[in-house]
TrEMBL record:
Residues 130-264 form the NACHT domain. Pfam families: NACHT. It comes from Clavelina lepadiformis (Light-bulb sea squirt). This is NACHT domain-containing protein. Keywords: Leucine-rich repeat, Repeat.
């Protein structure tokens, strides 16, 4: 057994190398952090070359892995935060979606019903000799996350190479050594590359390869490539395919990151064994990150005037957009209390922010992007080509990637732009939808607008765009607007109210029809975007006397639902929030509106099957005066471990006290076998 070094000069390089074949039975030795006194010449050459290579890799990771915001300097040390990570069942279907198809449901629905379990960052570091993929939508921080993974693997004494697909779109054939070493770390001798590659082939179980951004590859892996040897000079796609098949470095860990569609297209023989999906940051981590770049005063100001903006900061790309636009000369956050107002505020602040420099004004650029966004959404895609950008007068080589995200190749050897299959994406799908709606409202002629409203706007394809259109047009009360906008508002209002009436009446005839209920809730979301009380009053007149909210109630539907409910004056037979999986904030928002209704206005109400902390007991008590006959509330609270539970003894006492004070005939079912009633 090797003697353990007492030297304090311990580093990652020596730690990796001391696990090489020079040390026998490496799994059972205490690592010696000094070079062995006697080795063969070839072993010593590999040892010295690998020490140099590992230092180069770590230097690259240190440089690339730093989080930076455009034009904004960190005020303090940037905290380490991680997005939510879920293991998902990804290959459970035979067909795959069209390349980058536009999905009006948004990214929140991307992996619905496919989550197997939530994992932590450490779980990924514990992986060995596997092929795994990490998928996420644009702007979710895949590259930063993969660089952080690479650095963590290096600290765990594993040799890790991090390679971006956008830097590997070579047109000429290459060997595997050229791809991973020669071109990535140029300027060294043939002997250096040869000895390093020799060590890698002998130590495949010590290697981690992270290939970042499969969707940015300008070649297809759909077809099966032949098995090749280490020295073959072939197209890059064949090298990548053989890495996926584990023909190269069979005992290594291979990690590929990508937008979801590209991983789905991998042939069955080359598919990853495990797939993880990245989600948003937690609100706690978002605040930590926010305070590293901005003052707490700005956090409080945004939280007080437009809390939805902080919620959107949980997406790393939106975080960058919002922080950068609110730390420029214009500090006007505005009333960003709806997504429509939020995006309008961000776009306005980008106009004045010194952090963003465009070759034209932001207003001019926005008008061109609106046309492009509408055309893309109309044809059901989220991809733009360089030609489409140029045809609209947008220079694809100068536009800032914070508005349009450029996925192209800039070779470390040849810096020219490879355009071939280059794709351009709006930095976030919601930006595409907001720009599309802006074109409909501000750029579309009135006659075309009327036809669009009558034939297209109320189709599912335009769901999110419709919300923004309603937000832009219905929210015009305090603004000076042109005649065209007023005409469009009246056209939209007429057809919108017709839709409300038709769907509400059908739902009252078929209260359990989920598709109708979902359509109605979506219209309520549009009402909430526009904040027009006259339309909310009309919606309240047609509010179903019995309504069951959906399981997994999406939080973005809550504000619109509440805006309509507070205008409801008629008696309701039943309102079910049962098994909606509402969190504390959503339930509080709904309960705050309901408790202001008339006493006994709701016959029966269900709140069972939610995720409420003990603090929500006051919201539940507030409902007691409004519900007339029965309130079902078992399994509506959660314990410290996140498991659902019934009301505990203290909560039961509070409920009983409130019932006695109200002196109603209301029955409160706190579990299937226990009912509380007023005792006075």
């Amino acid at each position: 057994m090797a003697e353990q070094s007492t030297s304090s000069n311990v580093n990652i390089t020596d730690a990796v190398l001391n696990q090489s074949p020079v040390i026998k039975d490496a799994e059972n030795v205490t690592i010696n952090y000094t070079q062995p006194p006697s080795t063969s010449s070839s072993d010593e050459d590999e040892w010295n070359s690998m020490r140099k290579l590992i230092k180069l890799c770590i230097s690259y990771l240190e440089k690339e892995g730093k989080l930076r915001l455009q034009g904004v300097s960190a005020k303090e040390e940037i905290p380490v935060v991680h997005p939510a990570i879920h293991e998902i069942a990804y290959y459970d279907r035979d067909t795959v979606p069209v390349d980058e198809r536009y999905d009006p449901k948004g990214q929140n629905e991307l992996f619905k019903n496919k989550i197997k379990n939530e994992v932590c960052f450490q779980d990924l570091l514990d992986q060995k000799d596997k092929f795994i993929s990490i998928v996420a939508s644009a702007g979710s921080g895949k590259t930063v996350f993969s660089l952080r993974l690479a650095k963590a693997f290096s600290l765990l004494k594993r040799f890790c190479i991090h390679l971006k697909f956008m830097d590997a779109n070579y047109e000429q054939p290459l060997t595997l050594r050229q791809l991973l070493l020669d071109n990535m770390f140029p300027g060294h001798s043939e002997e250096f590359y040869s000895t390093c590659f020799s060590w890698m082939q002998k130590n495949t179980d010590k290697i981690v390869l992270i290939l970042d951004g499969l969707d940015q590859a300008q070649y297809s892996l759909e077809k099966i490539s032949p098995k090749i040897n280490y020295n073959a000079c072939v197209p890059v796609k064949d090298l990548v395919f053989n890495l996926c098949r584990k023909h190269f470095f069979p005992n290594s860990l291979l990690i590929i990151t990508s937008r979801p569609h590209a991983v789905l297209y991998l042939p069955e023989l080359a598919r990853p064994q495990v797939t993880y999906a990245l989600g948003d940051l937690s609100l706690e981590d978002t605040k930590k990150l926010f305070l590293a770049f901005a003052d707490e005063d700005l956090w409080r100001k945004i939280n007080a005037t437009s809390s939805q903006m902080l919620s959107m900061c949980r997406n790393p790309l939106m975080f960058q957009m919002i922080i950068s636009s609110n730390t420029g000369p214009s500090e006007d956050i505005g009333d960003a209390s709806t997504p429509t107002r939020l995006f309008a505020t961000v776009m306005k602040n980008l106009t004045y922010s010194h952090n963003f420099q465009f070759p034209e004004t932001m207003d001019e650029l926005a008008r061109k992007l609106q046309v492009l966004a509408f055309a893309a959404t109309k044809h059901g895609k989220v991809v733009l080509t360089a030609k489409e950008l140029r045809d609209e007068g947008v220079d694809p080589t100068t536009i800032h990637d914070i508005v349009v995200q450029l996925h192209c190749h800039r070779s470390p050897i040849n810096s020219r732009l490879f355009e071939g299959n280059t794709k351009f994406f709006f930095c976030h799908q919601t930006f595409q939808e907001h720009l599309t709606a802006s074109y409909v409202v501000y750029g579309m002629p009135v006659e075309e607008f009327q036809d669009f409203v009558e034939t297209s706007l109320f189709q599912e394809h335009w769901t999110v765009v419709r919300r923004f259109v309603c937000g832009l047009l219905f929210d015009l009360e305090s603004k000076t607007v042109s005649g065209d906008l007023l005409q469009k508002k009246e056209i939209l209002k007429k057809h919108f109210i017709q839709q409300l009436e038709i769907i509400s009446e059908k739902l009252m005839e078929q209260p359990g029809f989920r598709a109708l209920r979902d359509k109605l809730l979506d219209l309520y979301a549009c009402v909430g975007e526009g904040k027009d009380s006259s339309i909310a009053t009309k919606a309240a007149e047609h509010f179903p006397t019995t309504i069951l909210l959906p399981r997994l109630m999406n939080s973005n539907l809550v504000p619109g639902f509440c805006f309509v409910v507070k205008h409801v004056t008629k008696q309701l037979d039943g309102l079910s929030l049962g098994v909606c999986n509402l969190d504390a904030n959503s339930f509080h928002e709904i309960a705050s509106v309901i408790k202001e209704l008339k006493p006994g206005q709701i016959g029966e109400m269900h709140i069972n099957g939610n995720n409420l902390p003990p603090s929500n007991i006051d919201d539940v008590i507030g409902l007691l005066r409004v519900v007339r006959d029965r309130l079902l509330m078992w399994d509506c609270f959660i314990d410290d471990d996140g498991r659902r539970r019934d009301a505990n003894l203290d909560e039961r006492r509070k409920l009983q006290t409130a019932l006695d004070k109200n002196q109603t005939c209301l029955e409160v079912r706190i579990d299937p076998d226990t009912t509380l009633r007023s005792q006075k």
